[in-house]
Design goal:
With about 150 residues, the protein is α+β, with helices and mostly antiparallel strands. The chain has one domain (about 5-145): Gcn5-related N-acetyltransferase (GNAT) (Aminopeptidase), CATH 3.40.630. Helices cover about 30% and strands about 40% of the residues. The chain has 4 helices and 7 strands; from the N terminus they run E-H-H-E-E-E-H-E-H-E-E. It has helices spanning about 10-30, 35, 90-100, 120-125; strands at about 5-10, 45-55, 60-70, 70-80, 110-115, 125-135, 140-145. The longest helix is centred in the N-terminal third of the chain and has 17 residues, at about 10-30.
């Protein structure tokens, strides 16, 4: 894999880097309104954020998960800076989050809502599309579920 170090963003600086990457990818890159990205699930009890740093502490990728209920986790806000796409960093951070979630035996279902353009990406990681499509921030999405 890459030379990316992935950590849980428990410190304010690391969390700020998650928000920075998401702002660059979603708000600036995809013209999503900021209030769609920064929402009620940002508090520490709801969401667990991860940040991937390249050599030299350069933030490159981020993702988070939150518990929907006691048996269901949802992966969200997966983002890789444009200049680092195509290097496997998105795959690496999603697999890292999956590994963390698999450690919790109470979790029976892992899901995510993805932009339609990324369905194949998540499909290669073991996710299966289900349900009808929906619009989120003006972008077509589908729900997907991880199949162990």
């Amino acid at each position: 894999m890459s030379e990316m170090t992935i950590i849980e963003a428990t410190k304010k600086y690391d969390y700020a880097m998650c928000i920075h990457l998401r702002t660059m990818v979603f708000v600036i890159g995809q013209d999503c309104p900021l209030h769609y990205d920064i929402e009620s699930y940002e508090d520490e009890e709801s969401a667990v954020n991860f940040i991937g740093y390249l050599v030299g502490d350069r933030p490159a990728a981020t993702a988070r998960y939150r518990m929907v209920d006691k048996n269901t986790a949802k992966i969200e806000r997966v983002a890789v800076l444009d200049e680092h796409r195509g290097k496997g960093l998105g795959k690496e951070i999603v697999l890292n989050v999956l590994d963390v979630l698999k450690e919790n035996k109470a979790i029976k279902t892992i899901q995510l809502g993805t932009q339609d353009q990324a369905i194949d990406f998540y499909g290669k990681l073991g996710f299966v599309k289900y349900g009808d499509g929906f619009m989120d921030a003006g972008i077509p999405h589908h729900m997907m579920e991880y199949k162990k």
